[in-house]
From TrEMBL:
Protein name: Peptidyl-tRNA hydrolase
Organism listed in the record: Undibacterium pigrum
SUPFAM superfamilies the record matches: Peptidyl-tRNA hydrolase-like (SSF53178)
HAMAP family registered for this protein in UniProt: Pept_tRNA_hydro_bact
Gene: pth
Cell compartment(s), UniProt: Cytoplasm
InterPro entries membership: Pept_tRNA_hydro, Pept_tRNA_hydro_CS, Pept_tRNA_hydro_sf
Protein EC: 3.1.1.29
């Protein structure tokens, strides 16, 4: 089992570009590839080589809660199984600076994950969760929806960028199917 598709989650459009909810886009944008709009998948799509393997990259251009349309379409077309998919997304339950990897599990209230689970017919796909913190854990009074749709404060952006860099460093292990090694490295990174 290896990763054949990396999906970055976010919302399309310049007004959302710098918001916390676009952490998945931020990671995919740092990979060496040119993403092109593909109307068949309603997404930006590209290919790159990681660990000497060809990997598809996808940034759905639907809004977050309809991400499954793009993910389901590309998986059906290229015969990519759910366990070969890595979805990169923002995670409220993890503090900025931390990234966690897991296979399956609930959506945790994340509407993008809910829609992908519905489209794939299973929860058994990989998730790379980029911590953005929760407004309460960061001592903010914002509601969650407002929080994720705003840009991180300066003291949060640096740690989020670090978590993305640490995540990029383990992608070769994931593409090679070395999931325990990738988790060990990512989860012990300080």
């Amino acid at each position: 089992m290896t990763i054949r598709l990396i999906v970055g989650l976010g919302n399309p459009g310049p007004e959302y570009e710098q918001t916390r909810h676009n952490a998945g886009f931020w990671l995919v944008d740092q990979l060496p590839a040119s993403l092109q709009r593909d109307k068949n998948f309603n997404a930006l799509v590209g290919k790159t080589r990681i660990a000497n393997q060809e990997v598809w990259l996808l940034e759905p251009q639907t809004f977050m809660n309809r991400s499954g349309q793009s993910v389901g379409a590309i998986c059906r077309f290229y015969k990519i199984t759910p366990d070969q998919v890595l979805v990169v997304h923002d995670e409220l339950d993890i503090m900025p600076g931390i990234a966690k990897l897991k296979l399956g599990g609930s959506s945790g209230g994340h509407n993008g994950l809910k829609d992908i689970t519905a489209a794939l017919g299973t929860q058994d796909y990989w998730r790379l969760r980029i911590g953005i913190g929760h407004p309460r854990s960061l001592n903010l009074t914002q509601g969650v929806a407002d929080f994720v749709l705003h840009r991180p404060r300066k003291e949060e952006q640096g740690p989020i960028d670090d978590a993305i860099a640490n995540s990029l460093a383990v992608l070769p292990l994931l593409v090679e199917g070395k999931f325990p090694e990738a988790m060990m490295q990512l989860h012990t990174t300080k």
